[in-house]
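Step 1: inspect the first sequence and its tokens.
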Amino acid sequence: MKKIIVCCSAFCVLSVLAFPQDGSPRIFAIPGYGQLLLQVPEAWKGELVQPADNRPPTVIITPVNTAPFKVMINVGTVTPEVMQELDAETLRQMAESAAMNATAHTVEKSLAVKELTGPALRGFYFSASERAPGENDFLFMTHGIARLENMMLVFSIYTNAGQEAVVQAALEMLRAMTLRPGG
């Protein structure tokens, strides 16, 4: 019993050191929408990739010094009319459709869709295991769609075995994200 407690304590300490919950706020200017604020853990770095052809930007978050993973947050381009229709049920249906399509490439035959909410965020996501990963591919993916005020987001979290804490920290980061005016 003592051995189990010591192991669990060590795991908790390592989790806190590797994925601190009190990340520093990072600001990403999203043209036409404002500034996206994310609490990015200190051990992670983030960059905004703005395609040259006026496509929407993508925030990409990767580790500084740990095993590889990738978090991608894509800003979706939709008309104001479509944004008005992006209610919780529509978002859920979109996530369920994406999950159903993903099963063609996953170990799982069906994928459970879960809700993701925060102070300003409302969305849905699913997690899956890649059926036949390539040499440089990640083994696991968590993928979802969300609405953050007047912005639609599509996000993906790519990880390998033993990185469950990365997925949880990334989901917490997404839950807490906010959008403020300005560019």
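Step 2: inspect the second sequence and its tokens, then contrast the two.
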Amino acid sequence: MASILSDYNAGSAKASNVAKSVPYSDFDLAFDIHPKTRDIIPLYDIDAVKNAVKNLVLTNFYERPFDPFKGSNLTALLFEPADVFTASQIKREVERVIEEYEPRVNSVLCEVIPKPEENYYSVSITFNVVNSANAVEVNFYLKRIR
């Protein structure tokens, strides 16, 4: 008695047992257009993870429709006095949201420097991407809009 599965696969090439390496990919929120293809330029590998970390940290609660608690409370902290205590809270919040929601990242170190004269914070996040030996750094400013 012949198996249907073996009859089906008899004429086809053997499937490879080696998994293909699929890079991480993401869209840049700037939506830059490629000059020749006129399509959105995607981000790959480490650039995609850096973009995802920054977007995750800057996402407020209730901004994502089906996951309202994904994000951080940084907007509320920006209305606190710009001092080392608020910087410490921002640092804890950044580390919490990355460790909780970004599985592609490990060894997260965050440095938050308050700039009370200009009323903003300089944020520097250093991390390792899983299966990568190089440390990656993301820098941005947190400033109150209103």
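Step 3: confirm your contrast with the notes below.
The longest strand covers residues 105-115. The radius of gyration is 22 Å.
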